[in-house]
Amino acid sequence: xxxxxxxxxxxxxxxxxxxxxxxxxxxxxxxxxxxxxxxxxxxxxxxxxxxxxxxxxxxxxxxxxxxxxxxxxxxxxxxxxxxxxxxxxxxxxxxxxxxxxxxxxxxxxxxxxxxxxxxxxxxxxxxxxxxxxxxxxxxxxxxxxxxxxxxxxxxxxxxxxxxxxxxxxxxxxxxxxxxxxxxxxxxxxxxxxxxxxxxxxxxxxxxxxxxxxxxxxxxxxxxxxxxxxxxxxxxxxxxxxxxxxxxxxxxxxxxxxxxxxxxxxx
Length: 266
Fold this sequence. Notes:
The chain is mostly beta strands. It has helices at residues 39-44, 111-120, and strands spanning 24-36, 51-52, 58-70, 83-95, 98-108, 124-126, 128-131, 150-157, 160-172, 185-190, 203-216, 220-228, 243-264.
């Protein structure tokens, strides 16, 4: 009998795999803060093939509260397999003269989202992420999407607080986050386990995210605060903000079933 599945564990029916095959459909609430880090620190995190941006310290911090599912939507009736939260940091750069972003650090709170991220080139690690929620109801228990409302996000890992952000909404945004607008180009990296060849990766390639059926809600913007804290085993605090820009709150949806190989870095 041939074992089946998109990812391990492979099984007779193919239902045991951690990640089902694409397409993957996503929708999520986002809290984004545009900011600037020390230029030298931001440049040090750019992968081969991506050159420094003309504004070299340009970065963004992103909190997302996701729901996702594969074709057929079975995960929607098993919410623990469809819902997750994540926090990530992107740095701006140039790819052959085009503005791009690259995800340099990211934490997520579910194993299937971690594995799916590795497939796509997101360097995901496990963490604990929380975001302020809003509901389409007149009540005191949740902020509304209106001027003066406050939204927060936090990320922790291994008992250490890594990041926190706060955004106070002011008005609908005309343009949204400039620091996350360019496409994402990441590094897919899988190491080799061969004695004497540990420094030679099995897979090391630059890939461009490809998505379709994109939809976005009204984007709200406002004053923002962001703090990145040092912790053992982490290096994200290299990007500690030297200047914080605007914050944004919105809902975004898209579908993924492809990615573009930009360059083989092996």
